[in-house]
Design a protein that fits this description.
Keywords: Membrane, Receptor, Transmembrane, Transmembrane helix
Structural class: alpha+beta
Order of helices and strands: EEEEEEEHEEEEEEEEHHHHHH
Protein name: Interferon gamma receptor 2 isoform X3
CATH class of the domain at 83-177: Mainly Beta
Oligomer: single chain
Pfam families: Interfer-bind (PF09294)
Number of helices: 7
CATH topology of the domain at 83-177: Immunoglobulin-like
CATH superfamily of the domain at 83-177: Immunoglobulins
Shape: rod-shaped
Organism: Enhydra lutris kenyoni (northern sea otter)
GO molecular function, one term: cytokine receptor activity
Number of strands: 15
Radius of gyration: 55 Å
């Protein structure tokens, strides 16, 4: 088992139990301890040099104390990556929300954030700094997959120092299409449908011209039977000739008789003019 103590004295004349900091670092079963305080009012003073010492215990037996090298939290603190990262794909953009690596009083310092992002298999870019925990990556290409990492940068106002943090894990997301892309997609679909219809119409027209006779044969109406013959076929006892005579109009059988009177050339000269006039009238 292990136990821990800390001191702010270079001489180590006075040591304090780690439990006084609000952390549980006494009687541990693992050789590690997290000194993150439970509240902002507890923890190591940020502007003090801190020294730790540890020892192992087994029942009533205890090892000698081992002193850890001095450190100053303003200079030696390790800033982890932002936590609870949440990414929402937008129209040609990515909306990123996260929480800070740890809480820090405003009078002691603040965080600034940077986003490392790149299109998959592309060149990495960096955007920042941001003071907000909500970041919008805009100007991206629609319907593309982007990967990103977020990093926090700690600025200590109490001791006028800054410490870069660690990058978060790589996560990838696909952007959504924007209004321009939607319009282009609609136009492309409309043009594609129009071209398809034009090709179909042209193909049909070509086939009609090439197989004109066959098309006429397919679409030619079958010959129809006259109504009189159709009635006769339905009722053979009906005299077909009388039915045809009945339907025939008397005016269809009317004709004019024409008489042509001719004379030899000699006789024609001897015929009086009056006779020719009468004959001509009769012919007309």
């Amino acid at each position: 088992m292990t136990a821990g103590q800390w001191s702010t004295s270079f001489s180590g004349s006075r040591w304090y139990d780690a439990n006084d900091l609000g952390v549980n670092c006494m009687n541990l079963t693992k050789p590690e301890c997290n000194f993150t305080p439970s509240s902002l009012s507890k923890g190591f003073p940020p502007h003090f040099n801190i020294s730790l010492r540890v020892r192992a215990k087994l029942e009533d037996l205890a090892s000698p104390w081992l002193t850890v090298p001095w450190f100053l939290s303003c200079w030696n603190v390790t800033v982890g990556p932002p936590e609870n990262i949440w990414v929402t794909p937008g129209e040609a953009s990515l909306i990123i929300r996260f929480s800070s690596p740890f809480d820090i009083p405003p009078d002691r310092g603040y965080f600034q954030y940077y986003v490392h992002y790149w299109e998959k298999a592309g060149i990495q870019k960096v955007k920042g700094p941001f003071k907000s925990n909500s970041i919008v990556l805009d100007g991206l290409r629609p319907l593309r997959e982007y990967c990103l990492q977020v990093k926090a940068h700690l600025f200590r106002t109490s001791c006028n120092t800054s410490r870069p943090g660690r990058l978060s894990n790589i996560t990838c997301y696909e952007t959504m299409m924007d209004a321009t892309t939607k319009l282009q997609q609609v136009i492309l679909i409309a043009v594609g449908v129009f071209l398809l219809l034009a090709v179909l119409a042209g193909g049909c027209f070509f086939l009609v011209l090439r197989y004109k006779g066959l098309v006429k044969y397919w679409f030619h109406s079958p010959p129809s039977i006259p109504s009189q013959i159709e009635e006769y076929l339905k009722d053979p006892s009906q005299p077909i000739l009388e039915a045809l005579d009945t339907d025939t109009s008397p005016t269809d059988d009317a004709w004019d008789s024409v008489s042509i009177v001719s004379f030899p050339e000699k006789e024609q000269e001897d015929v009086p003019q009056s006779t020719l006039t009468q004959n001509s009238a009769a012919v007309c």
